[in-house]
Each structure stands twice: as C-alpha cells, then as structure tokens.
Amino acid sequence: MTTLLDVRGVTKRFRGLTAVDAVSLSVEEGEIFAVIGPNGAGKTTLFNMIAGAMAPDAGSITFAGERADGLPPHELCRRGLARTFQIVRPFPELTVMENATIGAMMRAPDMDAARVKAGEVLRQLDLWDRRDARAKSLTLPDRKRLECARALATGPRLLLLDEVMAGLRPTEVDRIVAILREVNRSGVTILLIEHVMRATMALAGRIHVLHHGATIAEGTPEEVTRHPKVLESYLGAEAL
Ligand SMILES: Nc1ncnc2c1ncn2[C@@H]1O[C@H](COP(=O)(O)OP(=O)(O)OP(=O)(O)O)[C@@H](O)[C@H]1O
C-alpha cells in the first residue's frame, strides 16, 4: 500500500495549552481512516493543520509524497485534498447544482466540465433530484450531503470529513455511511473525524484515538474498542 498522508510529530499550542501533542499517523491510499476522541481532544485542530487552515508549531505533514504543512487550503485542494466543515456552509442563495459546480470549478478545465463533474457527484450523493433547490431550503441531512458533494466535486484523492454525521438520525446516518462506502470504492481515500461511534465503527478500517491532544490508541475498530485507555477516556462521556 502507498502512504497518501503522513503526519509526523505534529504539535499545536494555543498560549499555555497544547491542543495537539506530537501526533503521528499515516493514511494509506484507498482506506477509510477515522480520528476519534472526547470533546476537546484536539481532533479539529489536527484536521485544521492537515487541511491547511493553520500551520503546526512542530512536526511535518506529507501529502502524496510532498511536504504539505503550512500550504494554504487552495493549494492543497489543487493537489487533491478536500475537506468538509463541521458547521455546514454552502452558499445559501445558490442552488444545489450551483454549489456543486463551484466546488468542481476548483479543478475542472472549463465550465462545461465543471457542470458534468457537479452532476456526477450530485447523483453519487443522492442529491440529483434536489439540484434546482436553493441550498438554504435543504434539510440538515441534505445539507450535510451537499457539503460532501462540494468537497468531492473538486476531485480529491483524499476527502477530509469533519463530523458529517452530527445531528443526523440513525436512518440518515446509515444512508450517508452507504454513500461514503461507495465514494471510497470509487477510489477516494477518506479521513474522518466523528462523534457518531456506530458510523465510525461501520466505516473505518483503522481508528486513531486522541485524548487531551495525545494519541492513546490506534488500530481496527475491534482493537480500539477493547483498548483499556480508550475505555477509560470514554467512560462517562459516550458508550462505544
Ligand atoms: N483557536 C483556538 N484558540 C485557543 N484554544 C483553542 C483554539 N482551538 C482549539 N482550542 C483548544 O484546543 C483544545 C482542542 O480543541 P479541538 O477543537 O481541536 O478539539 P476537538 O477534539 O475537535 O473537540 P470537539 O469534539 O469538541 O470538536 C481545546 O481545549 C480547545 O479549547
């Protein structure tokens, strides 16, 4: 297997607080990899560094064999790394199709190609029937899938998903899990951070667990759910 993303000893401090403390992980091409941890564990901060929203204070990030830490999000997107946001933020007045087309324009050679790509991802994300609806009129599950569609429309090799299941009902979670499996099968590597354990267990081949900014475990879903430190850090917070 080829390593697509390599994070080595990455650290981020906010004044006195070490939000991410010398974290290392590798995501292999083709896998679904999850980062979990209780509130405040440092997941979003780690994600922000991988996605170029902030630079690490120490350590390195390599994407597709090239040094990537400190690069701006648009440059990472050009290289094939796209993300969704925890707070869903499509352009509210634009239609679903227009929102997806804007994502596609990041890498498509012209408008026609962007529209074709947008149509493709809307079908993939089960949003084709809603293509003429304004984004602001969508339900939360539809908006979550539009957020995925916008990121996917950029044609990424690595898709970073930031809590796309949050606030969804179990049937909607199952729907998005099935869609993401298909997206992965079509050749997109996925790195997700998620609180919805059922979905994480169902989707991820490997899980990396953070607690107070540091790694406490990594392994298959079965391995991490049996790990004593994971059980301890989640006690009282969330049943695995
Ligand atoms: N911009 C910032 N300035 C100061 N402190 C921050 C900043 N961003 C995050 N933190 C702190 O860093 C720590 C890690 O936060 P982070 O949001 O990365 O955790 P998380 O695991 O994503 O949490 P959640 O599951 O609640 O989203 C927290 O203590 C948080 O308060």
Automatic annotation (TrEMBL):
Q: Where does the record place a coiled coil?
A: none
Any single GO molecular-function term of the entry would be: ATP binding
Q: Where is the ABC transporter domain?
A: 5-237
Looking at the UniProt record for this protein, which Gene Ontology cellular component terms does it annotate, in alphabetical order?
plasma membrane
Q: This protein's superkingdom? A: Bacteria
- This protein's UniProt keywords: ATP-binding, Nucleotide-binding, Transport
What the entry lists under InterPro entries is as follows: AAA+_ATPase, ABC_AA/LPS_Transport, ABC_transporter-like_ATP-bd, BCA_ABC_TP_C, P-loop_NTPase
The protein's name in its UniProt record: ABC transporter ATP-binding protein
Q: Which source organism does the UniProt entry give?
A: Phreatobacter cathodiphilus
Print the organism lineage. Bacteria, Pseudomonadati, Pseudomonadota, Alphaproteobacteria, Hyphomicrobiales
